[in-house]
Design a protein that fits this description.
With 84 residues, this protein is mainly alpha-helical. The chain has one domain. The radius of gyration is 26 Å and the shape is rod-shaped.
């Protein structure tokens, strides 16, 4: 995040130096969008990670239960835990 902050600061600083404080769009359509993205990005990434974790955990659990049920239902089939 430090590199992005420096880049944004450099662009804003150049805009102020070249055009004055009124030359930079300080509202939501300018610098505001960048600042909002700094707060929303980690939140949205956390939500996506939680969803992906839940789905993968559910699928793995369902697969393990299916394998256990099949080994019980089909006599003579040995289940190997190491996958070999």
């Amino acid at each position: 995040m430090l590199v992005v902050s420096i880049t944004v600061g450099g662009i804003v600083g150049t805009g102020i130096a070249a055009f004055g404080p009124h030359g930079v769009s300080w509202g939501f359509n300018g610098v505001g969008k960048i600042i909002v993205s700094w707060f929303l990005s980690p939140i949205l990434a956390g939500i996506c990670a939680a969803i992906l974790f839940y789905v993968s955990q559910s699928c793995c659990t369902a697969l393990i239960l299916l394998i256990r049920c099949l080994t019980i239902a089909v006599p003579g089939v040995d289940h190997q835990e190491d996958g070999a």
